[in-house]
Specification:
It is built from 21 helices and 16 strands. By secondary structure, the protein is of the alpha/beta class. It has three domains: 44-128 and 242-403, Rossmann fold, CATH 3.40.50.300; 138-228, no CATH class; 414-517, no CATH class. The strands form four sheets. The chain has a nine-stranded mixed sheet with strand order 7-8-6-9-10-5-11-12-13, with helices on both faces. The protein has a three-stranded mixed sheet with strand order 15-14-16. Strands 1-2 form a two-stranded antiparallel ribbon.
């Protein structure tokens, strides 16, 4: 068939195959790198999943990237821990890489034991001497210790207290026989010198105060107070000789250092910083050798206190790129808990499900991905991920793309909270309105335990959901949780984590009240959210 026009000439319409149209798509730039950038040698890369546009298998490899470091973000239940576990297991198979998980909340210890790894519980009879040298010169270690204290305490605001503590540490090393500017020092018999501890530092400050010659005793007393926080009996995890051999742990396969037994966030952050500093110095001595691949993976999960501070070693490691023979994996459910410097400098960013526009603003500002990618992230299910790669060479294509799902060693199993029963007819017909909200099964059970349910009750609820094809109605779910003593404030927080809006939560509670009391729909109940 043809159409004629005086100005245009003859136009002819032909039957054309889809494959021919695909070849002619010169205007469209698909939101994926070419296949040769996505696919890699299975013996030298880590398979993570298939892309959404062309179904290309994606194999992660650091060799074309600016550095091997990775940032991961996604809400609770989005598949973050599942991704990390998959990555570590496959890295061990592909590169024989060791891994150290700095385990903030003890989340990984059961899994590490299950796969025959090692768990070290710091704070339960284990000690890590803050003044260990790990092959460094005392002068360098002193700078690291002071920087850690500046991040975790307010000594940076008090120059005199900072100076007093620094000089007391120097004196502790000198009293122990060390020279400040030398490495690997030994005593007269050729044995390694024994490092001092924070208790020696406190003793030096105390002796100075008792001498009565210092003109600002209040500053001295405050300096003692800041050190004493870490030397009190029962809290002296960093003020005794080390019982943890970090050198050995670096080559021991999969290791979780469980920090959940430490008393608070400051102690956990100090442990994490100290471990990172020792690892960094150890790897600095060996230097970067691309042909050796990645020797060690270090995971920092939910370590917001040191992932956010731009003076922390986590940020410094990422800034220094390929300087070391290890990859740092920084993960958090809240993107703003990770420094923008990390997102802007890591070789790989993996974004799982996120629910707040402000978080996507933060990421899009750092990574410069398209609005198309942004909209996709907002609608992600469990295990879906957007990957942003920073290649060494400038590329003419999109460096951010989407995986259908993380393909792990075991399939991801989701549990679904259905809200169809509280929606209006108009909302049910609206295709853009979500009808259920999902969370990965292991994360779901973990969240129930955090709400206060014991293991038996968690398994009872899990069995109930399994029998219903892994779905449970939101109203029934609320009733079951309240029977277990969970408050509505806690349930509200959980629903908000899933992405359920406040008006829908109010409807769920209202219908739950009606069902429990047998009231009809016309008999209103007053529900407010805390």
């Amino acid at each position: 068939m043809s159409l004629s026009g005086e100005l245009m000439g003859d136009l002819k319409i032909h039957d054309v195959q889809n494959t021919d149209i695909g070849r002619r798509a010169i205007i469209v730039s698909p939101p994926e790198p070419p296949a040769e950038y996505l696919m890699g040698d299975p013996k030298d890369s880590i398979y993570l999943g298939r892309t959404t546009v062309f179904n290309v298998p994606f194999y992660w490899n650091f060799r074309r990237l600016t550095n091997p470091h990775i940032a991961i973000t996604g809400i609770t239940g989005s598949g973050k821990s599942y991704l990390i576990k998959t990555f570590l297991l496959r890295a061990a198979l592909v590169w024989n890489a060791n891994a150290i998980i700095i385990d903030w909340a003890g989340e990984y210890k059961a899994w590490v034991k299950q796969v025959n790894g090692i768990v070290v519980a710091l704070g339960r009879g284990s000690f890590l001497n803050l003044l260990d040298l790990g092959g460094m010169k005392p002068s360098d270690r002193i700078k690291q210790v002071i920087r850690s204290l500046e991040i975790l305490t307010d000594i940076g605001q008090y120059p005199e207290q900072r100076r007093l503590i620094e000089e007391a540490i120097e004196k502790a090393y000198l009293n122990a026989g060390f020279k400040l500017s030398e490495k690997d020092q030994k005593d007269a018999l050729g044995n390694p010198l024994r490092p001092p501890t924070l208790k020696d530092v406190q003793k030096n400050l105390q002796e100075m105060l008792e001498a009565g010659t210092y003109e600002f005793p209040a500053e001295l007393q405050n300096a003692i107070y800041k050190i004493k926080k870490f030397t009190l009996e029962g809290d002296d995890y960093f003020a005794e000789q080390s019982t943890i051999d970090l050198d050995k742990l670096l080559t021991s396969g999969l290791v979780a250092i469980d920090l959940s037994g430490l008393p608070d966030e400051t102690f956990r952050a100090l442990a994490a910083l100290t471990i990172l500093q020792f690892i960094k110095e150890k790897m600095r001595m060996e230097g970067w050798k691309p042909e050796k691949g990645i020797k060690l993976l270090v995971v920092l999960d939910e370590a917001w206190k040191i992932s956010k501070d731009e003076n922390s070693d986590a940020v410094m490691i990422v800034r220094e790129g390929r300087k070391y023979q290890f990859a740092l994996i920084v993960a958090s459910q809240t993107p703003t808990d990770i420094s923008e410097v990390i997102f802007s400098n890591v070789g790989t960013v993996i974004m799982l499900r996120l629910k707040f526009e402000k978080y996507l603003d933060y990421l899009q500002n750092s990574l410069r991905f398209s609005n198309y990618i942004r909209q996709q992230i907002l609608g992600f299910g469990v295990g879906q991920a957007a990957i942003s790669m920073a290649y060494e060479q400038t590329t003419p294509f999109s460096e951010t793309f989407i995986l259908k799902r993380i393909d792990g060693e075991e399939p991801i199993v989701d549990y679904f909270i259905d809200i169809l029963s509280v929606l209006t007819e108009a909302q049910r017909r609206d295709e853009t309105m979500p009808k259920s909200f999902s969370m990965e099964r292991t994360a779901f059970k973990k969240r129930l335990r955090e709400m206060g349910l014991n293991d038996q009750r968690v398994e009872e609820l899990s069995t109930l959901i399994e029998k219903k094809a892994k779905h449970i109605d939101a109203i029934e779910f609320v009733i079951e949780l309240e029977r277990s003593g969970v408050s509505r404030k806690t349930i509200t927080m959980f629903f908000r984590e899933l992405g359920i809006d406040d008006s829908t939560i109010i409807n769920i509670f209202t219908r739950a009240d009606q069902k429990k009391t047998g009231a009809g729909e016309r008999e209103l109940t007053q529900v407010t959210l805390e």
